[in-house]
Amino acid sequence: MRPIILQASLFWPIHYLTAVAHAAFGEETPAALAWRGAAASPPVGGTLGAVARACRALADRAPEAVHSARVYFAHNRIRMRYARFRARRLKIGSGTMESGCKQIGLQRLKIAGARWARRARAKVAKARAAFLSGDWPQLSPSFPLPQAA
To answer: What is the per-residue pLDDT across 44-103, written as a single tens digit (0 to 9) for each?
Structure first.
């Protein structure tokens, strides 16, 4: 069975960095855009330490936005190892994750007239993920998938 890799969508780090830039320099000003561009490159290709230092440098100018960003980065640092994810050729954009959610859950759970209890939804989502990832035979050897005719 493959390991589960949790990752934060790239949208959220950019969202928090944009909030810091706007609070410190004004919305969509050249200075805000330049700072965000420079601050956003480390989470994508390097370390979060550089992002934390860049945010900390603006703490006097935008204390609330910097605090929110630093809390987000601290709570999600494990899921934001983008350089490692890219080295493993994993997708880091939100579109891939949204598509996965649609493939795993919505297509199966939104069948006309279907109503699902919370526990049943979770079981169906796990089964669908195992099927789509090719892990079904290892997870459920006593329930083999039917063979195509």
So the answer is: 555 677 888 889 999 999 999 999 999 988 888 877 777 777 777 776 666 666 676 676
Question: Closest by alpha carbon to 107, among 130, 91, 124?
Answer: 124
In the chain, where the domains are located: 11-87, 94-139
> In 10 A of CB 148, how many CB atoms?
4
Whether 92 contacts 51, CB under 8 Å: no
Q: For residue 62, which of 35, 86, 34, 97 has the smallest C-alpha distance?
A: 35
Q: Would the pTM of this model clear 0.70, i.e. be above it?
A: no
Rounded CA-CA distance 99/89 in Å is 17
For residues 86 and 92, the answer to whether their CB atoms sit within 8 Å is yes
The phi and psi torsions of 45 (rounded to 5 degrees) equal -120, -5
Question: Maximum CA pair distance of the chain?
Answer: 68
